[in-house]
Amino acid sequence: MKPIPTPAASGVAEGATAPLLEVRNLRVEFPTRRGTLVALNDVSFSIAPGEILGVVGESGAGKSLTGAAIIGLLEPPGRIAGGQVLLEGQRIDDLPYEKMRRIRGRKIGAIFQDPLTSLNPLYTVGRQLTETITTHLDVSAAQARQRAIDLLASTGIPAAEQRIDHYPHQFSGGMRQRVVIALALAAEPRLVVADEPTTALDVSIQAQIITLMRSLCRERGAAVMLITHDMGVIAETCDRVAVMYAGRVVEVGPVAEVIHRPAHPYTVGLMASIPAIGDSRERLAQIDGSMPRLNAIPPGCPFNPRCAHRFERCTRERPELLDAGATRAACWLHDPASEKRGDPRALDAAGDRPTAWPSGPADAGGADAPAGVDAADAAHDRAADRVATEPDDPASRAAAGRLPLPGSTP
Description:
The protein has helices at residues 63-71, 97-106, 115-118, 125-136, 141-154, 160-163, 173-184, 203-220, 231-237, 255-260, 265-272, 375-381, 394-399; strands spanning 21-32, 35-47, 52-56, 79-87, 90-91, 108-111, 191-195, 223-227, 240-245, 248-254, 322-324, 327-329. By secondary structure, it is of the alpha/beta class. Helix 5 (141-154) packs across helix 7.
């Protein structure tokens, strides 16, 4: 059995506040007639009180599944097959259903991607809010209603005294998301799991919801696990970020470090694919290939078929999170004893793109890259031309991943 990770191994600096949430070596499996599929493998991270941790990656990386495992909402036949989930030092992944139901809502709040499906269309938003409040808090019906009104007002819903008796379909998409946020915060939870809370919203409402979530959680000292694929949202909202790939955390560290100095080749590819203000490149970099299926995850590092810096060890040994400056990355390039070491940000002067090309056929079905042609150019020769337009307003740039961190230079 693997040892329990130290705080440093989970991405928390020594001397930091004791974590509110700890996920240790989490493993989630799906038994099938043809064998067991491992959807999450050895996932470890922690979140401190008042901290916002972003979880980012491509579709299929395991972000939402991690959130579902934490809050106890895995759909059968999915099951937690190993590891631990601790909330305020108490293990919660092995609790009976009824005990977990009491924790869910009271200590853990959830914000889901589509607010319309998160709300019952047959009940007013007031009834849904007051039911949650009275279930988890010892208050009267009148106190619960007043608290519901205060929550709606604090999330920016005008005329909350009247809107509390309206049904979900009478709210706009942005207002429904505010109701869901109010519902998640109704019982003053210590942890909020937000799964793509801004994806279904337009860019101006996205910026408002991001600001609202950040301010409300800071005021209440709640920790937030923000699941998204939008690096602009990560940059604007989070304190730290965990990058996931194929059911594993491949890099974790402070947001500014991961965005400006990524240490894992996958993170480098993610950041290189985002256009920046003043970028003179005609084409954006692209990570060739696609996320592997659960029954086709390669041995060794799961990213090795798509990596421009792989070598023999990557195909046979899976790396743990290793020190990589201010972050930790699951990459053998950062192992002091590795036969090959170096910064994966091997970039060409023209456009921050990897200059190496993996040996063997390209994953997208093309032939080996010609000598002297870098990975990004070879990938784009097989892809349709893409034209990136630069929005003028900050909210649009944030949603598109083009808004720099506060204090940074565009």
